[in-house]
Automatic annotation (TrEMBL):
The keyword Transcription is annotated on this UniProt entry: yes
UniProt cross-references to NCBIfam families, sorted A to Z: sigma70-ECF
Similarity annotation: Belongs to the sigma-70 factor family. ECF subfamily.
Domain RNA polymerase sigma factor 70 region 4 type, residue spans: 99-150
Cell membrane keyword on record: no
Descriptive protein name: RNA polymerase sigma factor
Keyword terms: DNA-binding, Sigma factor, Transcription, Transcription regulation
Alphabetical list of SUPFAM superfamilies matching this protein: Sigma2 domain of RNA polymerase sigma factors (SSF88946), Sigma3 and sigma4 domains of RNA polymerase sigma factors (SSF88659)
Domain RNA polymerase sigma-70 region: residue ranges: 10-74
UniProt cross-references to InterPro entries, sorted A to Z: RNA_pol_sigma-70-like, RNA_pol_sigma-70_dom, RNA_pol_sigma70_r2, RNA_pol_sigma70_r4_t2, RNA_pol_sigma_r2, RNA_pol_sigma_r3/r4-like, WH-like_DNA-bd_sf
Gene Ontology process terms (BP): DNA-templated transcription initiation
Record-annotated membrane-spanning stretches: none
Amino acid sequence: MTVKEYNNSVEAYSDNIYRFVLKNIKDSERAKDVVQDTFEKVWKNHSDISCAKVKSYLFSTAYHTLIDSIRREKYKASWEDADANKYYTNESYSDVNEVLHEALDRLPPDQKNVILLRDYEGYSYQEIAEITNLSESQVKVYIFRGRQFLKQYIGKIEVLV
């Protein structure tokens, strides 16, 4: 990939990658860092990357960088800072979008990522498999299980509205 092609890929895909990462970690500054790290890794290997495969390569790199970031942050948290009351609620919600985001946050990371890639970003099962280094059948299983959880968690939509 040439420098011009790299710059074009930055312009074309940076917003999509940022949205994908932000949906996962809900912290705009960390999301920006992950996107920057992603493009830095791609730049270091730009001579080995085909222009036709740059989108898949970018999302794969972003996914792995995101996972690394989440793992690093996991070890920084302490139990003393956790508020047990925030994990329990008896409130009823009327904002479907808020309920959906809360439900997405309760999914395991792999299921959440494949659902976001499929339903929010519109990738095919095959593209998701390439991005996440999972088999296509495993992607389908994760999406099915994630959707089942979301359906069970949200319940009937009439109750929410």
